[in-house]
Design a protein that fits this description.
Blueprint lengths: L15 E2 H15 L1 E6 L8 E6 L2 E2 L5 E6 L3 H8 L2 E7 L6 E11 L2 H7 L17 E16 L3 H14 L6 E7 L3
Parallel strand pairs: 1-9
Antiparallel strand pairs: 2-3, 2-6, 4-5, 5-8, 6-7, 7-8, 8-9
Amino acid sequence: MNSINQNQPEDNLKDLNGHDAIVKLKELAVSAATCFFVSNIKTGLPVSARPMTVQDVDDEGNLWFLLANDSGTYKELQEESLAQMFFQGSKYSDYLNVYGLVTLSRDEEKIKQFWSATLKTWFTEGENDPRIAIVKVEPTEAHYWDNKHGNAVAFIKKLAGAAIGKTLDDSVEGKLEVVR
């Protein structure tokens, strides 16, 4: 049985390191904005997953979130400081899978930096709500799936490939090695 990748006219694997990895991680996480944030990662048991909005991806590749310190998620992250995030930026591309180490804090400067009026839905006392916690995720592993030339070109290549019966996939994927 042949893999579809063996029928590709071009290379579709591209690992990224250092600065290039951070740029790609930031591009995909920011364009998706929301991810499924997974905690309680234990083999053989159901994980806990919930949608969360990334507040920032800094220049070191760390992902930042806000979370209520009285939530089940916060308690799970106190017990096990590992998380995995799944981002999907569009229907056919911009996928990102990040696994990393979590640090919880009450960094007042970060809260001020990330605060917006819509957050009052969850933190009713405003940016001084004592329930606000900062979640920092330092990626230890990451993988991306994207396209090389944008969604329009990828769509045209897909249509052309279907019409002529050839694999003309414009996708690219690889590991993101965020060097620390």
